[in-house]
C-alpha cells in the first residue's frame, strides 16, 4: 500500500502539479488496473525515485506516466528506468515500445534511443509519439536499482 501511495504521489506531483494542473489527478484511473497494464516504481536502495506504467498489448509495449521525482532528476535515473522497463517488456514478449512524449522530454527519449514514430497524425499539441525497437541486451544497469511492479495482491520485484 505504501508503494502504491508513492506511485500516486510522484505521478500527481511531477506529471500534474509541477505542470500547473492542480485538482485534476485521478488516483483511481481505470487504466491503472487493466489487465496487461503494469504500474511500476523505480527503487534505489529502497527509496522510490521514479514511476512508469508499462502497457503490454501483443508484441508492443507502451510506456506511460514516466516520471522521476523532482529531487532526483538529472542524475541518470530516467535512463535507468527506461532501460529496466525495456527489459521487463522484452520478458513479456514485446519487440517494440512506444511512448506519447511531452515535447520538452523528446530530447530525453532520443538520448535513450527512441525516435519519432514517423506518423504525423500522432504529433498533436500535447505529445509526440516515439518508438524504439526492442531486443538489444540491457547491460550495465547498477545492481542497486530495482523496479517494482504492483501485482494484484502483493508487489513483485524485477531486477
Ligand atoms: C524526463 C525525465 C523522465 C528524465 O529523467 P532524468 O532522470 O531527469 O533524466 P536522466 O538524468 O536519466 O537524463 C538522461 C539524459 O537525457 C538528458 N535529458 C534529461 N531530460 C531531458 C530533457 N527534458 N530534454 C533533453 N534532454 C534531457 C540528460 O541531459 C541526459 O543526457 P546525458 O546522458 O548526455 O547527460 C524527468 O526529468 C522527469 O520526470 N521530468 C518530468 C516529467 C516528464 O517530462 N516525463 C516525461 C513525460 S513523457
Largest sheet: number of strands, sense, barrel closure:
8 strands, mixed
Helix/strand order, N-terminal first: HEEEHEHEEEE
Number of domains: 1
For this structure, the CATH topology is Aminopeptidase
Average pLDDT rating: 85
For the structure shown, list the relevant keywords.
single chain, 159 residues, alpha+beta, Aminopeptidase, 8-stranded mixed beta sheet, binds coenzyme A
What is the fold's blueprint, element by element?
Layout lengths: L1 H15 L20 E8 L2 E11 L2 E9 L8 H15 L4 E6 L4 H6 L3 E2 L11 E6 L11 E6 L4 E4 L1
Parallel strand pairs: 3-4
Antiparallel strand pairs: 1-2, 1-7, 2-3, 4-6, 5-6, 7-8
The chain binds coenzyme A.
Task: Give structural notes.
The chain has 159 residues and is α+β, with helices and mostly antiparallel strands. The protein has a single domain, classed as Gcn5-related N-acetyltransferase (GNAT) (Aminopeptidase). The chain is built from 3 helices and 8 strands. The two termini are 20 Å apart. The relative contact order is 0.16. The structure holds coenzyme A. The site of coenzyme A has 19 residues, from α1, β3, α2 and α3. Coenzyme A binds next to α1, β3, α2 and α3.
Summary of the model, kept short:
This protein is an alpha+beta fold and 159 residues long. The chain has one domain: Gcn5-related N-acetyltransferase (GNAT) (Aminopeptidase), CATH 3.40.630. The protein contains three helices and eight strands.
Amino acid at each position: 500500500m505504501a508503494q502504491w501511495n508513492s506511485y500516486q504521489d510522484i505521478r500527481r506531483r511531477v506529471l500534474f502539479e509541477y505542470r500547473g494542473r492542480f485538482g485534476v489527478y485521478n488516483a483511481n484511473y481505470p487504466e491503472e488496473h487493466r489487465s496487461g497494464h503494469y504500474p511500476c516504481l523505480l527503487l534505489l536502495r529502497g527509496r522510490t525515485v521514479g514511476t512508469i506504467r508499462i502497457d503490454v498489448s501483443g508484441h508492443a509495449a507502451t510506456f506511460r506516466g514516466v516520471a522521476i521525482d523532482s529531487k532526483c532528476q538529472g542524475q541518470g535515473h530516467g535512463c535507468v528506468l527506461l532501460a529496466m522497463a525495456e527489459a521487463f517488456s522484452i520478458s513479456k514478449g514485446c519487440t517494440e515500445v512506444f511512448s506519447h512524449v511531452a515535447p520538452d522530454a523528446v530530447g530525453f527519449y532520443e538520448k535513450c534511443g527512441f525516435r519519432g514514430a514517423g506518423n504525423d497524425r500522432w504529433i498533436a499539441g500535447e505529445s509526440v509519439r516515439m518508438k524504439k525497437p526492442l531486443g538489444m541486451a540491457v547491460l550495465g544497469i547498477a545492481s542497486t536499482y530495482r523496479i517494482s511492479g504492483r501485482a494484484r495482491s502483493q508487489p513483485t520485484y524485477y531486477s
